[in-house]
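Chain A, query sequence.
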Amino acid sequence: MDFENYELTRRQLIGHGAKGSALLAAGSLLAAPGASAATRKFARAAAATPKKGGTLIFARSTAPTQIDPANSIIAGDIYTLDKIFEPLYITSAAGKLTPWLATGYTTNKAQTVWTFNLRPGVKFNDGTPLTAADVVWSIDRERKNTDGPLSFLDYAIKSIKADGTDKVVFTLSTPWAPFLSDISVFANAILPANFGGKSATAFWANPVGTGPWTLASWKPDSNITLKANPHYWQPGKPYLDSITINYVSNQNQQILQLTGGQAQIIDNVPPSNVASLKKNSNVDLSLFPSWQTDILVFNEAVAQFKDVHVRRAIAHAIDTDTLVEATSFGTAKPGRGLFPPSLEYADQDAPALSYSVSAAKAELKKSKYPNGFSTKLLISGGVEKWSEFATIIQAALKPLNIDVAITTLDHAAFETTFQKYDFDMFIDYAINDISDIDEMASFNLDYKNGGSKSYWSSYNNPTVSKLVEQAEGEFNTTKRAAIYKQIQAIIAQDVPFVALDYPPYIYATSTKVRGFAVNPGGAYRLEDVWLA
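Chain A, predicted structure.
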């Protein structure tokens, strides 16, 4: 964002004391020749009052493969699920835990019993009221789902019970620092108990949730249409009548649809297109801060990558400063460690392996493969940046005599392939969906309990797993920070992943779209969105 022009505009608007004068100033700023994108955007926001109605067309780079929140991590587009289903707490656009279906909670002194008060008046989209029994059933279902990749977040829950119709009591097996944040994850969304008396098949054909939207039509790996929930608990919302989410995997095609008027929001804008879109007077370009790290993942079940010296050699060979300079056009920061710097407890002083071809060659000489080897790098097609990353990495490893063949698959096949461990290396992003660092630490580093065998890398360091578990039981923030500092120092030397960059979320919208925002975990709520 152009903060200088934004602040100038803010001062200009504030200078008009009366509301009418401020709006008149906003109108002149919109018409002013040479006004920056930030100036135009701020002026529109100052002059705007939400209005009801209309259909939003959203071109998304990924599509849902299924819509059950309990299996959400394999759902492709997980950020469609939370339009239909909601948890007790959410993470706001500012990255803060926010009461949602619950209004608050109390705990006992030992912090092992948590009592949540449900928000009064909440109904499912079929008109039936939300009760404590629905919460108990839904979260019990998620935590007992052995196939649920995020069920590990509910590890500490010993039991759940309803206290009347409006209170839910969680008893934990141990004090658990990330508990409130864990409850907010989309996998812990609330459904009607026992699928509302339907079979699972019948329920998922016409799912029922408390979210602002209902499912009108959908096919797996394809487009989806959502209609406004007439029983939504926030009065007057959602503003839109409906949303059509079209699956458009190619980034250039997304841009053509936005600028041609066939779409009003696109995700995953290539950094190379940021400057030109900023100049388009019909487009708002937004860079939202993220809890995301683009990573190179090694498969330690493959002999070469089980060798720590090979992993260290590759880490030394990749110049992330040059990589980011070549691909991000100033939008991202170079990768240094697994945890993005915006995430609480991320240690920016962790001793990451620096770029050095001589150090890379020295590490490879210590390995069982001193003369190099041939390998494969798997990427998802349609993401311009990852293709560029792959080409840069391929070139960077040539001086080590590591010959890299790049395999590109469509996104659904890409996810299916690496989740079957059918890869040598792949590029993906690690993300913290919730406000607590434990999700990323567990999912990426705790081989036994994290739900993914360390993000499908098969990295298994018992010391790291023990420290992750220790941090989960530590409520003292100073002590907790010290534990994560230890973890980051160890993995900097073990190199289960190479952190490539810390990107923002880059979205572009029509200037008619108002109220759109993305939280640092990547979720965007659409009940506040309207069309001018």
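The chain has four domains: 3-47, 55-63+211-288+505-531, 85-200, 292-502. The CA atoms of residues 441 and 468 lie 7 Å apart.
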